[in-house]
Amino acid sequence: MFKAAPPPVTNSPSPDTTLTVLGLETSCDETAAAVIRRTPDGVVTILSSTVLSQTADHAPYGGVVPEIAARAHVEAIDAIAARALADAGVTPADLTGIAATAGPGLVGGVMVGLSFGKAMALALDLPLVAVNHLEGHAVSARLTADIPYPFLLLLVSGGHCQLLEVAGIGACRRLGSTIDDAAGEAFDKIGGALGLPYPAGPALEKLAAGGDASRFVLPRALLGRPGCDFSFSGLKTAAARMAATATNDIDRRDLAAAVQGAIARQLAERTERAMSVYDGAHGGRDRRLVVAGGVAANGAVRGALQSLADRKGYSFHAPPLAYCTDNAAMIALAGAERLAAGISDPLDVVARPRWPLDEAAALSHPTHKAGRKGAKA
Ligand code: KG4
Ligand code: ZN
Questions:
Q1: What is the CATH number of domain 19-144+323-364?
Q2: Ligand 1, atom 20: closest residue by C-alpha
Q3: Which of 17, 28, 79, 194 is within CB 3.0–4.6 Å of 13 for a Cys-Cys bond?
Q4: Residues 6+ apart with CB under 8 A from 10
């Protein structure tokens, strides 16, 4: 069938422009919009960041319901984008680009933000950047700190758990990935078994405070195994079984502490393995460890990674809590970095439910067989 070629992108900003980018994020259960400014020498200012969480809409179902999410994004995106512009004190005419998450995620929701972004780009004659949500997380620590490329990234969220060497925007090499569940999924499922509301990660962290982690012995997946992959399904099953018998508050608290400790330990242990690979590739230079994604908000996880980094001579960077979980400022920054590198996308770019950051590694070493459910990347 005849398909017209997309029009050439003619509206790219020149490399010496200060960019003012509107970011849009709708890949899961947060409708978010943000405006950031980036100078040609890379200084970033977050002018606004608005996040509308749908947690209450999904809570009765114990997880995110895609249809409810997509509908809620449709209802909210207009007002959230308008609020982000108003909070930033800019008008659409001040923008130099639009960045919208184009995947991976719940495709109905992704299409809402991406279509809205396309419409704005078309109406304002601005370049559009279709951003990989994971690339947003990858740059999130650069929103508030000057962290040069390259760095070693641990990306841990509700849908993803992977270790990446990030050499620059659009240049990620996957060193390891989960072979079953993501770390945030383990927090959410085990927390659910402990009777905590979804998403259970933050509540489990609160419950674990002051707990005695040594009272429950949990399986240590992949311990001593080569490679940098993760596995959380054994821990999830064992802990959910124990949760059924943990009826008093002390047992629940101690089990939560044991679970949190086991997840933090596995993350640090696999990151230590990735450091050897990273060091091999960089001759022991550029030792920077960055953590990103919702689970990076966890104090025990940050603590374990900080001590690993100290022991191995790495600097350690984690975004402020508000930029660990899903937000649109990170999408705007990924867009701005792409625009600064002369990259933008045609208006017929499609939404992608799956979109690995390192596509070559995902094709040559798939962590999931076709048809099997699991982490999104
Ligand atoms: O990055 P994010 O907002 O969304 C995804 O892209 O998945 O991550 C959400 C995940 C959820 O699984 C949530 O339970 C987890 O991050 N999370 C936490 C904490 N805060 C959020 N897990 C453990 N401790 C926390 N403090
Ligand atoms: Zn995310």
A1: 3.30.420.40
A2: 202
A3: 17
A4: none
